[in-house]
Amino acid sequence: MDKSLEKSLLVWLKAQKKACGLFLKLSLWLGMISAVAMVAQAYIIATILDGVIMGQQVIPLTANAQMVSSSMSIDTYTPHLIALIALMLLRALLAYGRERASFEAGKRLRGHIRAAVMDKLTKLGPAFIKGKPAGSWASIVLEQVEDLQDFYARYLPQISLSGFIPVLILAAVFPINWAAGLILLLTAPLIPMFMILVGMGAADANRKNFSALARLSGHFMDRLKGLSTLKLFHRGDAELKVIATASEEFRSRTMSVLRMAFLSSAVLEFFAAVSIAVLAVYFGFSYLGHLDFGYYGAHANISSSTDPQIVGIPFSLFTGLFILILAPEFYQPLRDMGTHYHAKAQAVGAAEALITLLEHPEPEFVGQVRINSIETLSADHLEVFSVDGTRLLGPLSFELKDNQRLALVGPSGAGKTSLLNALLGFLPYKGHLLINGHELSALDLAHWRQHLAWLGQEPQLFHGTVRDNVALADPTLPDDTLWHLLAEANISDFVKAQPLGLDSPVGEQSSGLSVGQAQRIALARALGQKASLFVLDEPTASLDSQSEQAVSSALNRAMAGKMCIMVTHRLDQLDQMDTILVLDKGLIVQRGDFTTLSNTHGLFQTLLRENIESVADIELVPLSVSGSDTQLDSDTPVDIAAEPAKGEAQ
Length: 650
Hints:
This protein is an alpha/beta fold. The protein contains 21 helices and 15 strands. Strands 9-12-13-6-14-15 form a six-stranded mixed beta sheet. Strands 5-4-7-8 form a four-stranded antiparallel beta sheet, covered by helices on one side. α2 runs antiparallel to α12. It is elongated. The two termini are about 45 Å apart. The model is unreliable at about 65-70, about 300-315 and about 615-650 (pLDDT under 50).
C-alpha cells in the first residue's frame, strides 16, 4: 500500500476516536494507574524476598572476618504482605475496568461507523447499492466494521502505554543501577524496530484479504439466491468449482496474513527474552564479584542498615530482584503493541473500503422547500446521470398534471428506471425537473417522498410481522385501518386465514409467502402512504395471471384521482394511460396515447406486436395430455402459471 495512502487512512481512523467518548481516555488512565501499582508491587516483592533470603547479611570490611546477619522478625513484613495483597486486588480491578472501558469504546465506535455507513447508503439510494452484490455490502457493514474494534479498544491505548510504562520503569531503575537502566534503554528500540520491519507488509496483506473476502461474500450470496435457477440449468457442479476456487484464494491470503502474525510474535518474544537474559547475566556476574560497575556508592547499598552495631557493607539482593521483576514488564507493553499492530493493519485495510464508501459523492439534494400536494410535474431538457457521472438518460421533456397517468415503455436499458430513480432523488440530474414549479433539488427530499407511493417488480418485505410491514410508514395505524388497506390490496382474506392474523410472521426475503402475496402486502403498505403520486416500476412483472389481475385492479382503484408514473413491459394494458413515452437509448422516440401509438408505425408498434406474441405463446398454447383422455382445444386459453412460492422458479 502507498505510504501516503496508509498515512491518510491512519489520520482518518484517529479522527474517528471522538465517537469513543471518555471511555478511550478512561482505558488509558486505568492502564497508567495499573503501571504505577505494578512498580510498587515489584518493590514490595523484592523487599520481602531480600529480607527473607538474606536476613540483612553484612559483608565485613576486615579480612578473615565472617559474614554476620541481623535477625529480623516475620512481623516486620506483615505491613508489606498486606500492601502486596491490596496492590494485587487493585491491579485486578484496574485490569477489569480497563477491559470494560476498552470494549465500550470500541462498541461506541462501531455503532457510530455503522450508522454512518447506513446513512450513506440511504442517501446514495438503491441505484448505487445495486452496483455491488449484497454479500459485498454485508462484508463492509459487518466484518470490516468489526475489524475496527481492536484498533480502538487495544491498539490506540497501547501506543500511549508503550511509551509511559518503559519511561516509568527507567525512572525507577536508573537511581538504583545505571548499568541495568542502560541495558534496558539500549535494548528497548530493538523490539519496535524489528516489529516494523516484519510487519511492513501486514497492512497490504490485510487489504488484499478484505478485497478477497468481499468478492467471496458477494459471489456466494448471489449463487445462494439463485440456487434454484442454477439447479434448473444444471450448473450446480460448475458453480461449486468456482466457489471452491474463490475459497482457496481466500484461504491462501488468510494464511499469508497469519504467517506474518506468527513471525512478528516470534521476533518480539526472541528479543524480549534475549534482553532479559542480558540483565540476568549482568546481575549474576555482579553478585559473583566478576563485574563491579553500575552501582552508586557502596556495593548493593540500596537497603543498608543504619544500625551502628553493624560494621561493613550490607549485601542485598534487592537491586537485582527489583530490576529483574520489572524487566519483563518493561518489554511487555512493547510486545503488546506488536501483538496489536495487526489490529492496526486490519483497521487500515478496512478503512480503505469504508472511506471509499463514506466519501462517495452524493446526489445534491439540499433543499428545504415543502409542498402540500402535487399539482404538476414537468421535465425540461432533463438529463439523468449515474452517481459516478455517466449519462444514463436525456435530454428529454414532458409534463404531467394532476389526475393524469404517464407510462414509460421501451426496451431494456432505455433509461426508464433511471428516470424513476431521479424522481425519487437517488440519481443526480441536469436540466429542470419541476414539482409545482419548484426544482426537485430545492425540495426537502424526505418530505417530498412522503407524497410518493412506490411499488417495484421485486416486493421487499422485512423480517417481522404483517403488521410491521404494512404500518412501516406509520407504526401508530390502528388495526381497522390496516385491515382496510389489506382489503384494498386484495390480500385481507389470506391474512385473516392465518392463525395470528396481523401478527403473522414474515421471514427474510418474504420467505413463507408467494411472490403475489408479498407484492399485495407491499401494495397495502404503499396505499398506507396516502400518496399524491404513484411511482410504479413493473409492479406485475413477477406475478402469475391471477395475482396480476388482483394487483392491477387494486392499483386502478387506489390511483383514482391521483397522478401516476408507471414503467411496464405489458403494453397491451396501457389503454388507461393518458400519455405514453416510448424511450430508446435514453431518448424519447415516440409519445402519445395507446390508440395513437398502436396505429402508428414505430418502436411502440413493434414492441406491442412482440408483447402480444409472447403472451399468446404462454397463455394460448394447444396442449394434449399424454396418457389421459383429456384433450384441450387450440382455442382454449390455458393459464399454466400457478402462483409460485418465493424463491421457486417461475
